[in-house]
Input
Amino acid sequence: MDEELNGIEAIRGYIDRVVNGDGKCRGMKVLLLDASTTQMVSCVYSQTEILANEVYLVARLDDTKQQQEISQSQSLLKAVCFVRPTEASVGLLSKELQSPRFAEYHIFFTGILTSGLLRLLAEDDTLERVQQVQEFYGDFVPINEDLLSMQCRNTLAMSVAAGTSWAPQHAPLYERNVKGLQAILLALKRQPVVGIRFAKHSACAEELARDVHDAIEADDIFHFRKKRRGTLLLVLDRRDDPVTPLLSQWTYQAMVHELLGLNNHRVVLKGAPNISEDLEEVVLSSSQDAFFAANRHKNFGDLGENIQELLQNYQKQTAQHNTSNLNTIEAMQAFMDKFPELRSQSHNVSKHVAIMGELARLVDFCSLMDVSQFEQELACKDDHTPHWRELMEKLESPNVKIPDKLRLGLLYALRYETSGNLHMVKQAMKKGGVPPDMVNLVNVMLRYAGTKSRGPGLYGEDHGALAKMTKSFMTSVQGVQNVYSQHVPLLMDTIQAIIKGKLKSDTHPFVAGSYAKPPNGAPPESVIPNEIIVYMVGGVTYEEGTKVSEFNQLNRGKIQVILGGSTVHNSTSFLEELKMTAL
Output
């Protein structure tokens, strides 16, 4: 099988080359970035690693204050620029070249640069300081090896507007998604020879799939010398599964994002009880933290045990290096050699203990065990009478927080859109303290992703009664330990259908001309890919990321999935973007 799809390695490989000017920029240098590339670099490189590559300073091209601070004495330094190929970034570079602060400029773009923008740069480089201009296709942020994001906001409104007269308002955002998806294919060096498929109900997914296909047809850059047998590109839309972003999470990475926020691998603990100053903002990155890499997909119970073990191992190590035992010069030297590592380990242990403590406090404070169990019931089972009764209890309860009452109301409305009494639910939400603008999100949600707007399959509608009964039965057999993780995102049902050759063309058609016709007149969906690149317009979730990672572990060497999306949502960001669809 071909080398694995790995978003972190792809971006890291590019940045390794960038920081050394692709072998042409030795010695001390300044690294100039824009807002997007700053996020990309911080995801795969620590500050220490940057410094180890002789980078004297990392600066933002758009930071005027920092520009003034760079003194004349630094003008002998070389500058390596890593930016997106946009008018804004090229404008900043042109301004830089008109009155250059550095002796040389080595410019790397994260995607395809138009000839017009290249000409603009050449015209402004009157002093001929630019040594090279290259295209590296790193136009996305790798969150995990198999989870990629464009870090775009408000793409729900973009996907809703697709195919309408409102679409031009979202053109720059749409273009960002197209370029990002092209960059994923180029960075991973994959051409989707099995075909390009899209969710039929989504005008945005269809447009994106067609535009990527047209780009592949028009530019040889997508036609790699090394032909790979079986890559499929699948473009989906968040609106086909509005349930997953509304659910409470119980695995480490997803839980941190849901309860504390995880942005550019940073977690803000400031304001939480008993948090020391050095832990007010911490980094959670799988490429810089071995414990997090090993535990990011672990559930809350296992995580608690593993953090306890981490703490005990650290205590054993520090006991061996107790300063009262330092009786010889050799022992002192050994301690000093080990001291930086122990100090770094101490911060890491403190960080995970602090995060775990805050998660446990919030779970207790928000009665999340109780709330989450009911969310899972609403997401997985059709059982109206008990669901109605429990929803009314939860909406009345002072122990259930307002955001959780909103999420429960939305989950009920999606499940029982045609059979439930939604008017009474909204009245009960208001009575339970949910503000009117939040209650109105019930209507907004059903307009965005109700039965008339989304594709089939969310509640097993297209699998028939037997499949629904089997799913419900398996859920009850799996037992109590899984009550918080019964839900399986629609994405995984879609992937399972693909690998069985059963994802129908009438729900997920192929872009015409994107696939080679199978022999014997078999339908194109019968060809089983060995790699699936999924891109979800409107954003993905860490729950889907975890499920994809588990799938890849189970199917190692047989089939691999990599998941990309406009952003990574938690329930807060999803509902904020949902509001924007009503404007």
Observations:
- The longest helix spans residues 329-365.
